Amino acid sequence: MVFIAATAVFAFVFIVLLIGLTYFSQSAEQNRQVLRRMTRPMGDVEDVDITRKRKPEEHSVFSALIDFNLMRSLEEMMWQAGLYMRVSEMVLIICLLFAAGFLLGELFWKGTLFALGTGAGFSVLPIMYIRFRRTRRIKAFVGQLPFALDLMKSSLEAGHSLNRGLQVVVQEFADPLGGEFRTVLEQTRIGLPLPRALEDMLKRVPEEDLRLLVVAVKVQSEVGSSLALIVGRLAEIVRTRQRLRLQINALTAQSRLGGLIVAILPVIVLAMFSLINHDYANALFFDPTGVKILKIAAVLDLFAFISIRRLLRMDF
User: Fold this and answer.
1) How far is CA 69 from the centre of its chain?
2) Residues 6 or more apart from 185 whose CB is under 8 A from it?
3) Which of 190, 176, 168, 15 is nearest to 101 (CA)?
4) What integer best gives the mean pLDDT of the chain?
5) What's the mean pLDDT in 215-219?
6) Span between the terminal Cα atoms of the chain, in Å
7) Domains (range + CATH), the chain
8) Is 18 helix (H, G, I), strand (E, B) or coil?
């Protein structure tokens, strides 16, 4: 018991030290990270498909396994979240968390299956953090996008070029939008065409509103048209989509809150009974049958919460 607890504590301390060294040594590797931002993840050079993705009607399991690349997906997700650390460091953190969770699960649950589940839950925490940062960063980008489009439209109507309009956007807007457009300008300075640089930004910020801008710039560069008029129309479309998204969130807020309350309520009730009457709740923690019931209830509660979240997710 003492060895398992000590190993778990050591794993957590090592993870904290690793994260500290990663985030507090940014000045020593600043140049390397700037160069990585100006290049593609994993060195792929194929054209970016700017059309809306559709699920294939027919596909084989073998082709799906070939296309599935976990390391590449993790790196792209980290780029989209604004984390420019090595994938190997993140994989090491995930493995250490899995080991720590497995040891703690073996210590408390006394079962290999639930210890594996606890380890898997701990290992998912970095992925959840990356997804949280990714979602927050993309939301911030989309919130700034209509105002940036208005500024680009004004710059184009004043007779400036698109590159000059992007420079004005970089000067007026903070991260994440300002940083992403700054990367686009840096890529154009080293010889990359502007449509291609915008396609690279679309990979870092996979948002449908930004896809409309990339398509407009690419079409305008090929056939020619009034870009200021297109950008102004895009600003209106983006604001309409954002208004619709907020309406959907408002209409589903009650159901999402209800699902969260239903998931947390059993834990709160059990904690209250444990404080009020110890004998009433001790059977769930010390009796073998009670422990089995508690494990089944935890699994079912988690499954119900995930199901409610999936049912309320809307794509448009």
Assistant:
1) 17
2) 163, 166, 167, 170
3) 15
4) 77
5) 85
6) 52
7) 141-238 (1.20.81), 252-316 (no CATH)
8) helix
What would the pLDDT profile of 228-237 be if each residue is shown by its tens digit? Answer: 888 888 899 8
Q: Strand, helix or coil at 245?
A: helix
CB-based contact 85:26 (threshold 8 Å): no
* All residues at 6 or more sequence positions from 211 whose CB lies less than 8 Å from its CB, including other chains: 50, 52, 202
Alpha helix (H) residue ranges in the chain: 2-23, 30-37, 61-67, 70-81, 87-109, 112-157, 162-172, 177-189, 194-204, 208-223, 227-251, 253-276, 278-286, 288-311
Quote the CA–CA distance of 135 and 130 in Å, as a whole number: 9
Query: Is the Cα dihedral 304, 256, 141, 172 positive or negative?
Result: negative
Residue-level pLDDT at 136:
92
How confident is the model over 38-85, as pLDDT tens digits? 444 444 444 444 454 554 444 444 444 444 577 888 888 888 888 888
Buried residues in 195-211 as b, exposed as e (16+ CB within 10 A): bebbbbbbebbebebbb
Place 137 in a pLDDT band, splitting at 50, 70 and 90.
Answer: very high
- Classify residue 131 as exposed, middle or buried by CB count within 10 Å of its CB (0-12, 13-18, 19+): middle
